[in-house]
Design goal:
The complex is a heterodimer of chains A (about 400) and B (about 300).
Chain A lengths: L1 H19 L3 E9 L10 H18 L3 E9 L4 H13 L5 E4 L3 H14 L2 E4 L16 E3 L4 H14 L4 E7 L2 H16 L3 E8 L7 H9 L4 E5 L2 H13 L8 E4 L4 H7 L1 H4 L3 E4 L7 H13 L7 H19 L7 H10 L2 E3 L3 E5 L5 E2 L2 E6 L12 E7 L1 H4 L9 H4 L1
Parallel strand pairs in A: 1-2, 1-3, 3-4, 4-5, 6-7, 6-8, 8-9
Antiparallel strand pairs in A: 10-14, 11-12, 12-13, 14-15
Chain B lengths: L2 E2 L2 E2 H32 L6 H19 L3 H22 L9 H23 L15 E3 L4 E3 H23 L1 H11 L1 H6 L4 H23 L9 H16 L4 H21 L7 H12 L10
Antiparallel strand pairs in B: 1-2, 3-4
Helix pairs in contact in B: 1-5, 1-8, 1-9, 1-10, 2-3, 2-4, 2-8, 2-9, 3-8, 5-6, 9-10, 9-11
Classes of the chains: A alpha/beta (about 400), B mainly alpha (about 300).
Chain lengths: ~400, ~300
Amino acid sequence: MRRFMGLAALAAVLACGGANAQQVNVKIGVLSDMSSLYADIGGPGSVAAAKMAIADFTKDHPNVKVELISGDHQNKPDIGSQIANQWFDVDKVDLIIDTPNSGVALAVSQVANQKNKIFIVSGAAASDLTGPKCNANTIHWTYDTWMLANGTGTAIVKTGGDSWFFLTSDYAFGHALERDTMAAVEKAGGKVLGKVRHPLNTNDFSSFLLQAQSSKAKVIGLANAGGDTINSIKQAAEFGIVKGGQSLAGLLVFASDVAALGLPTAQGLILTETWYWDMNDANRAWTKRWQQERQGKWPTMIHAGVYSGITHYLKAAVALKGNVSDGKAVVAQMKSMPTDDPLFGKGTIRPDGRKVHPAYLLEVKKPSDSKYPGDFYNVRATIPADQAFRPLKEGNCPLVSG
Amino acid sequence: MFEIFGIPSTALFGQLLIGLINGSFYALLSLGLAVIFGMLNIINFSHGAQYMMGAFAAYLILQYSGLGYWPALIIAPILVGITGILVERFFLQWLYKLDHLYGLLLTFGLALIFEGVARNYFGSAGLPYTVPDSLRGGLNLGFMFLPNYRAWVVAASLVVCFGTWFVIERTRLGAYLRAATENPTLVRAFGINVPRMITLTYGFGVALAAFAGVMAAPIYNVSPQMGAELIIVVFAVVVIGGMGSILGAIVTGFGLGVIEGLTKVFFPEASNTVIFVIMAIVLLVRPAGLFGRRA
């Protein structure tokens, strides 16, 4: 009998312990471009960042168990939504994260909304994700086209680059970036002289560059990404565009693109990012750990965003005591808590799903100023969080206007 | 200054010239494909990957031995050509008697492997490679600025293309090759080592792809998928020219470059489809291609 009492007491103690730290089980899927032009800005690097976020969080919260899977959407919206459907329905994934390529991200955002799950966008850029196409299941984490346009576009017009010509990638992302940049340029008093839309994954830009050259615009805005941006910049240097007095504005340039171009070609380029690995000690320490899995590579803001997004999601999951099946409730919880992590510092998530934090106007260094591998940028200006992103009311998001 | 369809004539001349430059890449690549198909009856789907390997070889030669563009232009095609010879000896030689489809599938699989390996070690963003110092700068032609490097690309491509055409169509060695394709047994009876000749031909075709890769490295992004993007267009070029026709590959390569260049002015969104539209029309009207012999 005494023995039984002892066991009962032990059981009671254990039960209490369990109630204090409830077991939380979640499953996260990194959906990215694993094998094509965006694989270095997201891809396996995002998976590495996700693993780090999970390891860091579960170290302090041993009651949280996270399962991580990853998939390749091949930059095709149909494949992306097919994987998302399967993950949500069959594999019981609670959160999909990353997803570069705005076309795919817009499709997956719809799926997450229909299934009432969660989608955190770090890789895609189209500001429509928190504009007309926003929904209560999607959070846009790292950056967007409005922020890029506003940061780079406004800064360049202010320094005298007041006439523009656009080279635009012909799909959702390019159109959004072009539209947002045109608005920013015109608002700052500049004018747009022309534009040309090129297919995604174009090899040769000389023909487009020649059109840009004959437009006599002071600035050629590159509303494209990845390999297309690299090819544009490489060939613009060859055709003497910059020497001829026109300047290039890389509207979306990542650290990995600068590495691929090399500083002799990329020097002087002005760009906007929300995170740079060499900005402070916390970023450098994080990068060192990240590089253990991605040797010789440089993390992009997308990778940092995946880390930050997962960290905040897990905090919300713990606050909800593991009740993560209702996606809208979890997103609402995430919006109600301020964000705080070593990479982006303190921030908030707005009602339209936009995560806000400061952005940085950067300039690619001259080769002679670069002291060690990865020493890419000078920070020219910091755009405070409340000015970096599109004002809440201007986005036409149905969640805001009601 | 006069205008053609609302485009100033000077701009149009510029675009024509640029089309010709891009055409030289199409011509170089489709030439290799045509040689391989004409002599080996193999549809070499790994041609794009071998073009990529040429560019990567140039990068690695620079990194590990410090040798620049000019030595790489010779060494890289030789190295990649040797890998081609190994591929032919180990795999392709067993497939000559089988349907075309087997060669196509094998080379396609190899292309995926080559690209996957490159992506695994170098990532997908690309590697830096710059224009050699001796070809920096350019010439102002009045209607456009012609970079010296592009002028060199056209010249080198023309020399290589017509050199190859001359060797195959006008020399004794070329005659042996063509005879060996028609009737290998008979040619062997004359004491000519046909299998070795076929092996070297494949190696040469692959080396041509690698040569184009080195030529491309300073101006295009050197990334694992650089060949996969180009190869589909190049196949269309070969089909339009007539499978296996060497002159056809060269002429259509340059011609389609020009047509694509013009599309980029008048209707840029269609610039990556125009070649396939032309291919469809040519196949309807002349199924054997513009320069092909009817089978």
